[in-house]
Amino acid sequence: MALQERKLQGHAMMKEMITLELFEVIYQRRSIRSYLRKKVDREILDKIVDAGRWAPTAGNAQAWQFVIVDDPIRITKLKSVSPGIFHEPAFVIAICTDRDAAIARMGPQGAMLALMDVCMAAENILLAACALGLGACVVRSFHQQAVGVMLGCPEGCVTELLIAGGFPDQEPTAPSRKNIEEIRFFNRWEDK
Ligand SMILES: Cc1cc2nc3c(=O)[nH]c(=O)nc-3n(C[C@H](O)[C@H](O)[C@H](O)COP(=O)(O)O)c2cc1C
């Protein structure tokens, strides 16, 4: 086989491998709410937040900040105002936006676009955590103002989402999802 052909075949195989791995992570990721009492290295925490940093962001505005909380005392305090956090996470990542700055940069839609950026970053973080053997759960049930104060967020900065995580202490079965046929149309609503 010619070198070029072998290279192409290798490239195709590699692509297939990467694609399969990505889909495995997508299908295997579950919301994990119970964690082992084991610290997660800051290097790993940085890596998963970095995955968030590379998510799509409207107009490349990057209107988010990520506060990683890994101090157990601070986590306990966060939990006291966050009914959506269960058990004892090893870390909580707060994803914050500066809504005013987003509006100034992107106009009246800025705050909504910034929130979309947060969601994009959150999913990358969840997938990266899962790929690295961690469990995580996105949390919206928390007191935004109280969390903002605890984190020392500056004026105008809003905590939009929390991601609680750690080494998983549970293996939940997948919840049901709608069938694709129920929710997917080609070209026009209701066209199957
Ligand atoms: C915007 C949003 C907010 C959520 N808030 C919470 C929360 O406060 N607490 C919680 O335990 N799970 C929360 N979840 C996780 C969902 O309950 C979970 O994704 C859903 O049950 C599906 O399970 P899965 O993630 O394992 O597929 C939230 C998910 C999303 C997308």
Question: Any low-confidence stretches, pLDDT <50, length ≥5?
Answer: none
**In percent terms, what proportion of residues is strand?**
15-25%
Mind telling me the C-alpha Rg?
19 Å
Please give the domain count. Answer: 1
Write down the secondary-structure element order: HHEHEHHEHEH
Q: Tell me, what's the shape? A: globular
Quaternary status: single chain
| List of distinct ligands in this structure | flavin mononucleotide
What is the structural class?
alpha+beta
- At CATH level 2, the architecture is 3-Layer(aba) Sandwich
pLDDT averaged over residues: 92
Strand order of the largest sheet: 1-2-4-3
- CATH class descriptor name: Alpha Beta
Give a quick precis of the structure:
With 192 residues, the protein is α+β, with helices and mostly antiparallel strands. The protein is built from 7 helices and 4 strands; from the N terminus they run ααβαβααβαβα. The protein has a 4-stranded antiparallel sheet, with helices on both faces.
Account of the protein in words:
Helix 2 crosses helix 5 and helix 4 packs across helix 5. It is globular and about 55 Å long. The protein has a four-stranded antiparallel beta sheet, sandwiched between helices. The protein is 46% helix and 15% strand. The model has no long low-confidence stretch (mean pLDDT 92). It has 192 residues and is of the alpha+beta class. The chain has seven helices and four strands, in the order H-H-E-H-E-H-H-E-H-E-H. It binds flavin mononucleotide.
Helix and strand arrangement:
Layout lengths: L2 H26 L13 H12 L10 E6 L2 H9 L10 E8 H8 L3 H22 L3 E5 L4 H8 L5 E10 L13 H4 L9
Antiparallel strand pairs: 1-2, 2-4, 3-4
Helix pairs in contact: 2-5, 4-5
The site of flavin mononucleotide has 11 residues, from strand 3.
